[in-house]
Amino acid sequence: MMRWFLLAASVIVGYQILLPPVVGLASQGDFRRVIGKFGYGPEAHEAVYGSISLKYVPDPSYNLKGWEQPSTEDLFVQLALWVNDLVSKDGKLDIRVIGLLHATAFIAALAWLFRVTRDLPARPVIWASLILVTTDVGYIAYFNSFYAEFCSYLFCLLLMAESIDICRQGITTARLIRWSIWATLLVMAKPINGPIGVLLGLFVFQLAWRSSAAWLGSAAILSAALASVVSAPTDMTDAAAYNLVFLGLLRESSSPQADVIALGFKPGTDVYAGTGAGSPNTGYNLLRQSGEIPNKVNLLTVDYFFLMHPTRLWRHIRANLSIAMFLRPPLGNFDSSLPKTKSKAFALWSSVHEAVLSKVPRLLFLLLLVPPITLVCMRLRGRTSLLNLEFLALQSSCCLLAFLTASFGDGWETLKHMFLFNVLIDTCLFCAAAAGWMTVRRTVTSALRREPSLSSNSKRIERWIKSQLDTRFPRR
Q: I want to staple 334 with a disulfide (CB 3.0 to 4.6 A). Which of 74, 151, 338, 473 is the partner?
């Protein structure tokens, strides 16, 4: 049965990324940080935000050295270049080559997820639901792109599969090593994943009494998190600080003049409110040249400002919750023949995000607090917690942290930066739905099994009543 579900998933993915019109995701400038470092650039003029480029050619000028950073996506790009050398007739890199490699890795991860759930009684429903969610265009569009979000998606799925296997089969050295590898590769995908790496590393560390491999896994994950944050380009972090202030904090402020002074800027700097680091009329270059960014104002000082002003903190959280559940960023999905157009195929789950989940973001945000709070209360009372609850608390905590990192790590393209948050919220919903389905199924099954015994008890009572009546009122 599993092979047919995998075949269905493969057909859906292949239909989207291989058959014309090819579905991908337009660059908003980040492609230069990935494919640019390999000396390639788009063959034709790149329509930033509007459409995808299908062909890439050698172009050393396309790189952006001040913004480059190692990523696990580099592994797929290098492999795509090697494959392209074998199959390309004109030497040009077709973006569908890396799309096919991404798809192959995704199907392998989905197969692993199917494998660890193959013994569940509701597996056909679970697998169909997985295909519905994971093959949605909101996720598949990243396959034909050079965004590192794909690696976040891939290794998050593998981490989820390994977590399910550990919860069902128990902790072994092999499972813990695999879990640590997926977590390390997830953290190294993007700098924004670094804070989650700290949480994952500490979680593995507290499992050290169960397996000695936890020490090694924790060290690897924490090292990757540190390297991901430390290696973040200065240009990128400075721009992020500017965006967070002028696209986020000041636009939400009732007194921007006072806020810029409190942050450490000169009076009058609030005139740049509403501009990004790369926007026309931006004040980024001027503030950087003067040293106000990053000497006086940087991501740490801006986040400290939020912490010292709880009402502003919650206001910023509410503003980002209003867009956090939208799965698809405002980027084109097709080439220049269909500019600024989004694909409508296999967009059901994206529509659920927009029509349903976006209406209740605060409720979902608060529900994510329940598992970690429950776990903490159990620990404080000295009660032993279940391994399932520990992983559920980790899952929801990572989801919350992904939201906070996207909200307070940059103010530019926040919706796109919510990608990992959406992946994790979907995994939380999936686990909750699967657990609910199996609970209802067990309850109904057990009720049906008890029915015969209840029926026999009724018959015994009926016979006893009849015997009593015959004794007291004998027939003449």
A: 338
